[in-house]
Amino acid sequence: MTRFIRITVLFLLLLVLGIGDSTAQSVWQPITVTGQVVDAADGQPLVGVNICYRRDDALAGYVHKDITDYDGHFKLSYPRKYVMTATRIGYIPQQLHFSSDTTILIRLEKDPAVVKCPEIYLASGVVLDEENDEPLIGASVLIKDTDIGVATDINGEFKIALQKGTVLEISYVGCSKKTVKISKKEPMIIKLKPIPHECVP
Question: How many domains does the chain divide into?
Answer without folding.
Answer: 2
